[in-house]
């Protein structure tokens, strides 16, 4: 039996190698499906517009085709883009995203999620509003704030036109007064959380808080106690009679 196996062993090994390579080729040519997360890019946004809605930055793409071709796909080489060059204010729907993805021959897209995107554009506006210094606590008992100054006292924000209509002021980060007993100055960062807007300038203000102790209450005039009443008014009346 061993002699039979070893007879022409080099031809048998060559045949086995060829069969294995043929199996790999057949398996490689079989179709399969694979999913990829492809970046979605918004291109050519006009300078005086802003995107004012949530647009997904990744698209789930299912691609089918020969295994060998699928194995050669690199996500870094896949991209989807939407051209906003001619878009107008309002909502624009971009459909058939699959037509925007370039794939090698013999590969096809079986599913996209989402298959379309809505992009809402609004005009970009700037606005200058007052700065308000925010305190996280009150002063200790017996002290009062005399004056609060912020330099600069106004901030510039920019963003979607509809959001700018609701912005009336910009607040600072909170300043703790719980242990303050005298006037002080400090630099305080501004705190602005816009949905479709951002703080332009300044990033911080120089704040001055003037604190005064409350005056001690003045003593009132002395009050003499009223004379004590007799224990039995009726007896006193009889004696006077």
UniProtKB/TrEMBL annotation:
Residue ranges that the Swiss-Prot or TrEMBL entry lists as coiled coil: none
Superkingdom, natural source: Bacteria
Ranges of biased composition (kind: Pro residues): 214-230
Disordered: region residues: 211-241
Pfam family, one: YbbR
PANTHER family hit by this protein: CDAA REGULATORY PROTEIN CDAR
Identification of the protein by name: YbbR-like protein
Annotated source species: Desulfuromonas thiophila
